[in-house]
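[step 3/7] fold_predict: job queued, chain A
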Amino acid sequence: MSDRQIWIVDFGSQYTQLITRKSRELGYSSEIITVEKCRELFEKNLRPKALVLSGGPQSVFEDETDYSFIFNEDLPIFGICYGMQLIGKYFGGTVEKGTIGEYGHANLHFVGDYSIAHCPSNVNVWMSHSDHVSKLPKEFNLVMESHNKLVAAIEHKDRPIFGLQFHPEVEHSEHGKDILNHFFEGIAKLEKDWDATEMLKEADELVGKIGQAKVLCAFSGGVDSLVAAAIAHRLIGDNLYCFFVDHGLLRPQDHAHIEVLKKETGLNIEVIDATPTFLPKLVGLSDPEDKRKCIGRTFIEVFEQKVHEFESNHGIKFEYLLQGTLYPDVIESISPHEKDGKSVTIKSHHNVGGLPERMKLKLLEPLRYLFKDEVRALGKELGLNPEWVHRHPFPGPGIGIRVLGELKPESIKKVQESDQILFEELHNQNLYMATWQAFTVLLPVKTVGVKGDSRAYEEVICVRLVNSSDGMTATWSDMPYEFLSKVSNRITNEVKGVTRVVYDITSKPPGTIEWE
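[step 4/7] structure written:
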């Protein structure tokens, strides 16, 4: 990965991933690394074409690290928030310790005749900081300031070093991409090197290294596993074996989707009906984590048993496990505050936790450096059906985390039927692409209603639709009233035992996309 032309040194900002995504959207390859990794690469005489210093939750007054190994290099350097404060401190400016933080929108203006292409003289941006540069280092010019004369952007007079107090990578900052591109193209003089063709080339190279080894795929039918399988299948053909486990917590659309993929992709997909194994083990479990762990543990047991049977019956031996691991999964297993970037408190990035170790398989992850929106672009590059590429995400535990409380057959059925109605109406009204993810949740409450001339005391279905690009953040989808009304009417009329439908208008954060 050190061949990326932009290295983003992560100081722990919640927005670091967004810097990577935005730089790639602009056409420049990038990767996130820790401070220690950057030092190690420099010691090996490896260099990027540009370095970005991210924001972070720490105070520069608590940071005693010697950054001369970075600033002594004749490299284009871009400091964002905490990164700019490090620049100011290192080059002899004054950084003031904040007593209260500055968070939220701020209006900034360019100083003098400085300008950035496509940017107006005044822009609204997103601030998230406590400390700030109060006096510029002698070698720097002031580029932007706030209405109350606070330093907002600086630039070195002779070297390609640029700093911002705000976050251009977040959607809240107007003209953020223009400001980022000003550094990448105007200051660092980078050439574009990142698109779907390049992504596919890299994925092919990774899969090509395994030769004609036998590869196993725990196939879900979602865009990640489908694109990963499609890439592998192009290169190793029938040496790829896809097993789809039906744990009894799927929706009608999931079964139909797998049948379509079996017919139209050429992938070797075998469906394992494990419903009789899963559901009895979930009886009596109501805590979300207990349900997740039980489903995950049972998945591994079922999958492992099936694979051993398959290997015995067909006389083959699998060497690799193919997974649709994405870059956010990899990043979440890295801590900027540990020497090697590893932290036991952050989740493992393995999609099917435990399988590689249990089955002594090597991991094959052709998408491990990509974000969800990039995977969709890669799917289009592969010529996959757009409906498959833009299929809404569906969690591994399935309906197991969409029935709040204990999983009972009648509860599972309510979610399956209501979800199918939502799915049908999205297509009927041409709204499927208007939202990123749509689903229903059965709430553990009952309410009074009227059905016919009789009093009813039945359960509540919550409809959840959100817009996002990769699930890291999300906003609730503002859908037409006519659509919501039709969905509500159909669910209360067609799903037995449901009297009321509610619509979730919570964004992420503070909520999560799933309820459990």
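[step 5/7] annotate
The longest helix spans residues 288-314.
The CA atoms of residues 403 and 442 lie 5 Å apart.
exit 0
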